[in-house]
Every structure is written in structure tokens, then in C-alpha cells.
Amino acid sequence: MAALLSVDRVSKRFGGLAALEDVSLSVMAGEIYGLIGPNGAGKTTLFNCMTGLYTVSSGAIRLLGQPVQNSKPHRIVELGFARTFQNIRLFSNMTALENVMVGRHIRTRTGVVGAVLRGPFSCAEEQASRQRARELLGFVGLAGKGQALAGHLSYGAQRRLEIARALATEPKLLALDEPVAGMNPSERREMGDLFRKLRDAGITLLLIEHDVKLVMGLCDRVAVLDYGRKIAEGTPEVVQRDAAVIEAYLGGEPA
């Protein structure tokens, strides 16, 4: 089976600092893939290289076999790779519905002139986007919250709204950067259920998360970074027993 996303010997340097060194991994369609490691291990740097926010110093990144390293972020989204961020980046003074509709713009065809003139095609497309945004709010558990300002939603609801906005771009692959950070155990379990629901809907997930228990109970495969290098990759059972992982991240002795 061909990989949906492949990372081949990617390195990223900031001046004399090597943030990533020869990292390779592959994400298969239909799986939940976890990326863990200590603070400063290079996880978010790798996400930023994958999604076009950073250029790579060397190596290749392919989405559905197509090279995307150093592509513009909007081009990567158009190809079906969306993401959320570690720090919430919503438009706080816009409604939840409007935030999701922003995500739909990458899939609409109305230009500036059409938006100003408000022709039949423009109006129909806007109505379709509005309806799809409502459906996505319901999918992530925010039905009835469409008219609430994003900035007035609870922290957990804002996290869900970010996911709905990313889903509005129609991704094949969704990367989530610490999506349950700051949540209580009940909220984390509910988010885990949402991630499984996303996979069941045909969306492949790539997950950075410090909650090792969640990752090990949710992910099909896991990669571990330490000081910018991949030190392990495999099923959760294999990774948890890896001596290098235990020493670098998990702590304690193998079970």
C-alpha cells in the first residue's frame, strides 16, 4: 500500500541549530499516526515543514506521491492536507459558523468580483458553504453554537471549532498539534472519541500529543523524536518497550 504522506530524510536547520536530522516516516491512509517526544524534540518543527510554514534544509516530503516540500501552505491545503495549531488561532470576533466558512473558501470558486456583485452562482455557493459549515459544527459536537462568537466559547469548544474549520477544507489528512492540551480527563476522552469518528469518516490523522496514555490507546502507529531525530517507530506496544524511548521520554522500566 502506498503512503498517503511520506517524509524522506528531512532535515531542518536554523543557522547552526539542527532542529531535525534525517527524519523519515510514512503515514498510511486510514490510520491514526502519533508523533511524540520531549519538549524541543522537533515535533512542531516537523509539522511546520510538512504543511509549508517552514522550508526544509534537505530531504523530501510527498503527499499522495507528489512532492510538497517547500510548497506554499495554501497549495498543501488544496492537495488535501490540513492542520490545527498548538495555540488556538480562531477569529475570535467572528461567529463559530463564520470561522468554519472561512475554511470553505479554498474549495469555492467565487472571486472578488462575484462576491461584490452577488450573482446567482455566488449566492448559491455561499448558501452551500453555510449549510456545510452547519453540518461540520454538528459533526464535532457544536450543533446550536453557530451564532456564538468564537472568543466566547469554552476552551474545549474552541478546540473543536478549529477542527471543524480544518474539516471545511475537505482534507484527506488532518494534522493535530496537541489537540487535548489543557483539557480535563473527561474532555480528553471525548476528544479521543471524536478522533475515532474522524477516522471512521475516512480522514487520516497525524497527531502530536504529550498525553502518552491517549496516544498509546488511540494510535495505530507511533513515531518518537528526540533532539530532532527519530529514535523509534512502530505500534504502541512496540514503542512502549523500546529502550531508547524509555530512556528519552517515557521513563521507568519496560513492562
Automatic annotation (TrEMBL):
Top-level taxon: Bacteria
Gene Ontology CC entries for this record: plasma membrane
Record domain ABC transporter: where: 5-252
Annotated InterPro entries: AAA+_ATPase (IPR003593), ABC_AA/LPS_Transport (IPR051120), ABC_transporter-like_ATP-bd (IPR003439), BCA_ABC_TP_C (IPR032823), P-loop_NTPase (IPR027417)
Keywords: ATP-binding, Cell membrane, Membrane, Nucleotide-binding, Transport
Molecular function GO labels: ATP binding; ATP hydrolysis activity
PANTHER family, per database record: CONSERVED COMPONENT OF ABC TRANSPORTER FOR NATURAL AMINO ACIDS, CONSERVED COMPONENT OF ABC TRANSPORTER FOR NATURAL AMINO ACIDS-RELATED
Protein known as: ABC transporter ATP-binding protein
Organism: Parasulfuritortus cantonensis
